[in-house]
Amino acid sequence: MAYFANAAEVDQYIGEMFRMAGDHPEVGEKMKAAGIVMRVEYSDPDCVVTVGFQDPMRVESGETDLKPDITLVMRADTADKFWRGDYNLAVGLAKGQVKAKGPVNKILKLVPLTKPLFPVYRDLVKDKDAAVS
């Protein structure tokens, strides 16, 4: 069974993680300085989250006027594992578990910035984890 019940939950947790990332004291400024737009198309459940890595960060669920520089396609459960620190995105891309259109190197430069955000995400989902257990 999928971790997220519906698209609203994907936005509630994954979308919110991106919203919080721009304000993170250690990595927020670096993320906003990336100057790219990333669209992530999640499946199981289906959901689209677009992130504008700019100042201020823009995070939009569903269709948007933001034009992506890169698009990632993955299962929502894969994103959950990534944000917990349990999934290597570069390996997932190499194995075809995550598909990408656009300059992958730009996203891979952002991946190391996400490590300090893993505890933030785990705290964000702790009540959901407790309810699922």
Question: Which terms would index this structure?
Answer:
about 130 residues; about 45% helix; 5 strands; alpha+beta; globular; five-stranded mixed sheet; Nonspecific Lipid-transfer Protein, Chain A; single chain
**What level of helicity do the residues show?**
40-55%
CATH fold naming: Nonspecific Lipid-transfer Protein, Chain A
**Low-pLDDT ranges:** none
The mean pLDDT is: 95
CATH class: Alpha Beta
What is the total domain count?
1
Span between termini:
13 Å
| Quaternary structure | single chain
* Rg over CA atoms: 14 Å
Number of strands: 5
Count of runs of 4 or more consecutive helical residues: 7
Largest sheet: 5 strands, mixed
Helix/strand-derived category reads alpha+beta
What is the strand arrangement across the widest sheet?
A: 3-2-1-4-5
- In the CATH hierarchy, the architecture is 2-Layer Sandwich
The gross shape turns out to be globular
CATH superfamily: SCP2 sterol-binding domain
